[in-house]
């Protein structure tokens, strides 16, 4: 973990209120696991708390963040220009691991909304590991869909939208019976994670990445305690085995 000013290589809107920001700096060389996140200090001095943003892709000398505008901080981020620098703490948290998988194993990766973002790097790593990956991705509607083509390059994609404007109509639950995986990885809103947790209770390897507000990012403030107050999402997670957390 380190603090560094990362330089913005690009920052653009790729779907409705969804932005892709590419950063470069020495910190990228220490990013080695999908599911980890960065903690960004906003350039606006009135916005005191850092914002946790999942790492969506790790490349040779850059990393990519995908974020949705949900408040003043992310709105501020959307105005950053190429060549600007971002005060960054990271990489933080424990990400996905899959050393138990064998080549050719069938894996299901499930995401919803902005929770789809960290699953792209995970998908790249699983494919490199020789696994066959089915992605089940849920969005509110067609305008909210992002990285569909990128995921298609990695494996089978089952797309779901709440209003049926693209793919299957409904949340990701409408597609779960189409796969019979060895392991499941998921990220998204709590109802999605709760559904995955209960639907795959027969599987040992089910891992959930929690989306929480993280004030300090290092476990010092106890602001992101899990429901049972026995774990901190930023320090012990954000990825947990399904039996570890009550949702």
TrEMBL record:
Keywords for the protein's UniProt record, in alphabetical order: 2Fe-2S, Electron transport, FAD, Flavoprotein, Iron, Iron-sulfur, Metal-binding, Pyrimidine biosynthesis, Transport
Pfam families: DHODB_Fe-S_bind (PF10418), NAD_binding_1 (PF00175)
Keyword set includes Nucleotidyltransferase: no
BP terms from Gene Ontology: 'de novo' UMP biosynthetic process
Residues bound to [2Fe-2S] cluster: 216, 221, 224, 234
SUPFAM superfamilies listed in its UniProt record: Ferredoxin reductase-like, C-terminal NADP-linked domain (SSF52343), Riboflavin synthase domain-like (SSF63380)
InterPro entries: Cyt_c3_hydrogenase_gsu, Dihydroorotate_DH_ele_sf, Dihydroorotate_DH_Fe-S-bd, Dihydroorotate_DHASE_ETsu, FAD-bd_FR_type, FNR_nucleotide-bd, OxRdtase_FAD/NAD-bd, PyrK_electron_transfer
UniProt-recorded Gene Ontology molecular function terms: 2 iron, 2 sulfur cluster binding; electron transfer activity; flavin adenine dinucleotide binding; metal ion binding; oxidoreductase activity
The protein's annotated pathway: Pyrimidine metabolism; UMP biosynthesis via de novo pathway; orotate from (S)-dihydroorotate (NAD(+) route): step 1/1
Record-stated family: Belongs to the PyrK family.
Entry function: Responsible for channeling the electrons from the oxidation of dihydroorotate from the FMN redox center in the PyrD type B subunit to the ultimate electron acceptor NAD(+).
Assembly and oligomerization: Heterotetramer of 2 PyrK and 2 PyrD type B subunits.
Descriptive protein name: Dihydroorotate dehydrogenase B (NAD(+)), electron transfer subunit
Taxonomy of the source species: Bacteria, Bacillati, Bacillota, Bacilli, Lactobacillales
Gene coding for it: pyrK
